[in-house]
Write a structure and sequence with these properties.
alpha/beta, Rossmann fold, 2 domains, 6-stranded parallel sheet, 16 helices, globular
Length: 389
């Protein structure tokens, strides 16, 4: 790709107008999509943007816009990228380095201290930390808690993607000098609506077919798809419908076995990873989020933006904030497939609220980017001028 460079190349001009985003690699999760959206938002405000990767690989690397410079640190493992990130900061000295996920957050903090530069470090937590840490095993279970408690307070800014995640992290760090900010993810883009209009060739999503209940996410414990499948079994026993789950992950065999055991093979399917879930989403009768915990579930916001009725577990954190305590969609207890089934049936029968467009504005790129820029100390008048330009 033409916008890929190595950190050993000549320094980039205009570093004070450059914002760098740092990830281990570019996977297909919500955090990675958010970083790409932020990149475009910063560019729209007149900044140059680097996407710095420990290793430039991942299924979505091709999605990086040509206006974003991709810096490949070439590290075989994320933890080995520290020396090269330190060198990058010394050479380029961007206005800010915004990191996401582990171990990118921790490495970013260490790199600034080693580089001795004025670049602001923003670490962002995209999940409810206390819950996600409980799921870790081996070395990660020891290193990540230690890194968060010792290194996050040394960052210039600590950001979470929801108020619930903010309160959780603030309590978990328990450092009087560390203030955690909450900034909602920039989820809603023009690209979202364009992708939703693309045709879907799967037979379930054609006119005249039974209504489809859609789930989207990695097939792992956090998303609790077994609960959704059990709820669907109850719903299907009362009226014709189908369940489609988009995503990949380690729990696929377990979920396939559950679908078979419940006799749902004709009407429930794991469709795997799809590059454009929004086309499926726009043609679904409803979207169901069954997660045991979240940070700020972007798929819930995307479904609402596309006018698709939603039901969600009231997990920590995010759904309650997104749905305004249940005003814009049903909230059910975590793990309660009976309550999930009741809410799904109500929506299929036409009982669901309409989401106000004004409510969704807080999840658009503009507001999110401006909050980040304010944290970086950019004058408001500059934001106005950049936006106008």
């Amino acid at each position: 790709m033409s916008n890929l460079i190595k950190p050993s190349q000549e320094p980039i001009q205009g570093a004070s107008q450059r914002i760098s985003l740092f990830l281990s690699y570019l996977g297909g999760g919500g955090a990675e999509r958010v970083m790409l959206n932020l990149a475009m938002g910063f560019i729209q405000h007149g900044f140059e943007v680097d996407l710095v990767l420990s290793k430039a690989w991942g299924p979505h690397l091709w999605k990086v816009p040509s206006t974003v410079r991709v810096v490949d640190l070439g590290a075989s493992r994320p933890l080995l990228s520290l020396p090269k990130l330190t060198q990058y900061l010394k050479r380029e000295q961007p206005l800010a380095l915004l990191a996401a996920m582990h171990y990118a957050n921790e490495i970013a903090v260490l790199a600034k201290r080693l580089a001795g530069v004025s670049t602001q470090i923003l670490v962002t937590e995209h999940n409810t930390l206390s819950r996600s840490i409980n799921q870790l095993k081996g070395l990660k279970r020891r290193l990540i808690p230690l890194g968060v408690k010792r290194l996050y307070p040394l960052a210039d800014h600590i950001v979470t993607v929801s108020k619930g995640a903010r309160d959780d992290l603030q309590h978990w760090i328990n450092s009087p000098g560390a203030t955690v900010e909450a900034i909602y993810n920039p989820v809603i883009t023009d690209d979202l609506y364009q992708k939703a209009e693309v045709a879907v060739d799967h037979p379930w999503f054609q006119a005249g077919e039974p209504p489809v209940i859609l789930g989207v996410g990695k097939l792992e414990r956090q998303k609790d798809f077994p609960m959704l499948i059990r709820a669907f079994a109850q719903v299907r026993s009362q009226q014709p419908c189908r369940l489609a789950i988009l995503g990949w992950g380690p729990d696929k065999p377990e979920l396939e076995a559950l679908i078979a055991d419940l006799g749902l093979a004709e009407d429930a399917a794991l469709l795997g990873y799809v590059d454009n879930p929004y086309a499926y989403m726009a043609r679904s009768r409803l979207f169901a989020l069954s997660s045991a915990w979240e940070g700020l579930p972007t798929v819930l916001i995307e479904a609402m933006a596309l006018g698709v009725p939603v039901v969600s577990t009231n997990c920590k954190s995010g759904p309650e904030e997104i749905l305004n305590q249940g005003e814009f969609g049903n909230l059910v207890p975590v793990g309660d497939n009976n309550a999930m089934a009741e809410s799904i049936l109500a929506i299929l029968q036409g009982n669901h609220p309409i989401v106000h467009k004004d409510w969704l504005k807080q999840f658009e790129i503009q507001g999110s980017v401006e909050q980040y820029l304010k944290l970086m100390g950019r004058p408001q008048q500059m934001l106005v001028q950049s936006s106008a330009g």
